[in-house]
Amino acid sequence: MMGNKLPKRETFSKCCGKAGLASLIILFIVLISGGGLYLNREQVVPILGGSGGAVGSGASSTGIIEPGSLKLPPQCNTWQTSNDPNIRSKIPEPLSDYIRCLSRPVAFVEFNSWVKEKSGPYVEQVSRAGVMEDIGFAEYLFETAYSGREYWEKRGVDFHSVFQNLRDDVAGMDRVSTRIIENAIVAGLSGVTDMHLLLLGSSQWSFGRHLDGWFSSVVVEEVTKNLKNLKNPKLSRTEESDFPSETERVFRVVRSPLSWVRAGDVFNGPVKSLFPIPSRNGSKEYIPAVLSSDYRSHMEVSINGRKTLIPLHPCRASETTENVNALNAGPTSGDWPFFPGESSGLPLLRVRSFDSRFHGRLGTFVKSAESLRQKSAIVLDLCDNSGGSSSFSRDFFISLNGRAHWQMAGAELVSPATVQSWSLLRDNALPPIIRSFVNLAVSRLPSLRSESVVKWDISPFEKVPPGGTFKGKVAVVVNRRVGSSAEAAVSFARSVENAVLVGENTWGMGTFGEPRPYRLPNTGIVVMIPSKLFVASDLVEGRGYMPDYWIDSPDPAVEAARWLANPETYLFMPSPEPSEKVFLDFDTAGAGGEPMGVSLEIGSALGQGAMSGIEISTQAREGSGCLKLSANSSTMVYRLLSRHLPWGLEKVKATFWVKYDNVRREGGQYPNCYAGFIHKGADGGKKFNVKAFSGTNDWHQETMELDLRSEGASAGDLHFAVFLSMSGELYLDSLALTGQWADWSGQQQ
């Protein structure tokens, strides 16, 4: 039995607080192809069955679907299947990895009508009978409504076992904590990477982790054809075979803020780490970088034939500047979400959403294409656009270019669950495009009632080369928060002959699309389950589209305009890594806010530490929240506040304000109350460099420093922590960590 412990964040993400921005976007906006839908939970969350709710064949009279009745037979022998050579020709090749059974029978479960008033609350504990009913319905939904089920089953995810094991876990309980249910589902589906799949319970859970770009501030240029200009023209083959067919390629550093990597140095590799960036005509420039879903503080490169380390930072294309914050503030004026403008003399169109609720303003965006047809270049900024209706971007490019083709193979899962999720939507104020989906679902219901099946409606893939009437350049600017139907806009843009994608890789939430919301009747858990497939060779779930050129800038659209307007002289100047001091950021579960003087925000994700005794207190020095730890004789409270710090630091300094009351100092291995550094010592054991507190003291500032080299510590194994046990209260405010880089020019491994 799992108990109440939250599962580890290995292949899924728990989203909460400011860190939950992506999930909050998904919660309020359903991103669909061919049409968008704003999800108001009071309007569109269906109640499935409920106690006494009607169920169809394959379910018992109690409303509980029989265990095992939904398990997909391994061979689908009696159904159409992609394993049958006579059937395979009907499944386009890009979809054959996702679809096994074209059609199969299933029980028809009648859903209750839509709830027009506010839906029932999340329930903390439920009877065993109620939990069994919810487990059955959840299994039914993943069996009949999830477009990714067959794909992930082939990759080892056993959906049936997830729910059967959960039945076994709760069989002996009279009342069951709802958190056990959601934790078991999340942990059981940890092998799934689907950025549209979402579970809303005591927390908000998304499945999958995005591959982020981690960039250095070093710029290198390929000079293969101009060896005479090299300061030190030597090329060495690295131990890894990074130059399988590129042994004659030569790169040199052209811009660097690091003292141990200088302009003119030869960059020997790895070549696979070089991400192309915009550059002047006749030049090819790159920045060493990596893609990783984990925090990356540094990377190893070879400079002048010697291996060394260079620091990394997250790609700045998703940073929020004052200008970006104003654009992303939401529909506070009639202009949102379309902001036309100009930069470097070129048209700059910023579109922050394709939500069909704003069809009037987005219609203005579509119409603007008429005035752009004769322009030499335009910049379309889609940063932070999480999707909505793909029809707006399609119509824009049809108007601009005369054509817009979606380079994807598609399929829709048609079943009693997916059809009822639309047909029961009763809102007269729905936009016309959403109303068309409702009408289609209503027309499908009679045949499903007479012959209940799960079947795929396939849209064939047709590869169409770029072309059309627009002869200028289009720079489409994206970042890692561009997803779903906004990623469809990228596909439409590629219909233009001279289109280029710049910024960073997109969200990658397009393969499994059109998520539909379903509320389990007893626990109140809501699951958002995708019902469509959109398969493109270069759109990878969790990685997204890769840009043609990466732009490591807080406003990549302005940088893209400068590049297009100055093709002969353009130079990208990255923001340098601090040469001496660098602020060391907190992890998302530990803190938020600005780098200096932050107020720690814990929310519901307490991470490593006790689940009780940690809260946000209003007793901060300047009115904002601060971190409060409370302990008594039966509790121990601790919190690791910083992520693993960057490798390559020589010294670390912590400055913070602290207040404590009634803190006792007793015997034991460690003080009962402290704040400070925890790291691995030279012998590999855990080492504490902390400051202990006892008694009572009002707000005062503390400063601590740690020399990593003298302590034999690695910043990658170091945390800043607070700890309290036995008694009292501890308050922490305005914690800032700064570090000093070491000079690694002499390091060779």
Automatic annotation (TrEMBL):
Membrane-traversing stretches: 21-39
Gene Ontology annotations of biological process type: proteolysis
Residue stretches making up the Tail specific protease domain: 349-548
Protein's UniProt keywords contain Membrane: yes
One Pfam family recorded for the sequence: Peptidase_S41
Annotated keywords: Membrane, Transmembrane, Transmembrane helix
Example GO molecular function: serine-type peptidase activity
InterPro entries: ClpP/crotonase-like_dom_sf, Tail-specific_protease
Protein's UniProt name: Tail specific protease domain-containing protein
Source species: Candidatus Wallbacteria bacterium HGW-Wallbacteria-1
Native organism taxonomy: Bacteria, Candidatus Walliibacteriota
